[in-house]
Amino acid sequence: MTPTIEPKAHVDRQTVPFFSGEAARDQSKEPSKGCDNTGVHHVGLFASNPAASAEFYSHVLGMKIVGGSAPDHPLGASAFLSSRPDEESHEIALFANPFFAHMAFKVSSLAEFRALHRRVVERNIPIKFAADHHASLAFYFDDPDGNMIEVYWPTGDLSRRQPQMEPLDLSQPDEVLLENMMATHT
User: Fold this and answer.
1) 8-state DSSP, 166
2) Which residues form the domain of 47?
3) Per-residue pLDDT tens digits of the chain, which is 186 residues long
4) Beta pairing partners, 46
């Protein structure tokens, strides 16, 4: 049975059921204030054959294959595509290993990156891993349903094909992160 959509989901800042029969959600956690992401900028999808799927996105949607890895790579077989490779290192990442499926939110500064990381940690959400992808600094965590989320700050280094994955220690101060980034990106 298809749920009936009720026309008003929010009334006077109070959440009311959106679907008929749905209980109102607990809003005890205040929404985020003070730092914003710039939206979803890429997705990582499961693909049983990343190379074949990359050909599909290339031939059907005109995307450029900008990277990838073989099955023996630590991440397994992958393919990376971008419609704007001079601006975004990738917009779609395809992984044979479903563990790496994710959606990625870009932030506009290292300060925003740190603020979002702090917010995730303060809410006791486990960080799965953090990485220097050369094109970006990133950290990963799961939403309540187990969908992996990446938050990343682009470094501006689009010179290396993805995947790139160096360890990233976010306990280091900004100066050390930036120094390490400059040293490993040359």
Assistant:
1) E
2) 42-184
3) 544 444 444 444 454 444 444 443 333 455 555 557 776 788 999 999 999 999 999 999 999 999 999 999 999 999 999 999 988 889 999 999 999 999 999 999 999 999 999 999 999 999 999 999 999 999 999 999 999 999 999 998 888 888 998 999 999 999 998 888 888 776
4) 95
Write the single-letter amino acid at 66: V
Bridge-based pairing of strands 102-106 and 148-154 is: parallel
Residue located via tokens 């799927």: 53
State how many domains the chain has: 1
Do the domain assignments include residue 169? Answer: yes
CATH number at residue 97: 3.10.180.10
Tell me the pTM.
Answer: 0.74
CA distances from 97 to 61, 103, 156 (A): 23, 15, 27
According to DSSP, the β-strands at 64-69 and 78-82 are antiparallel
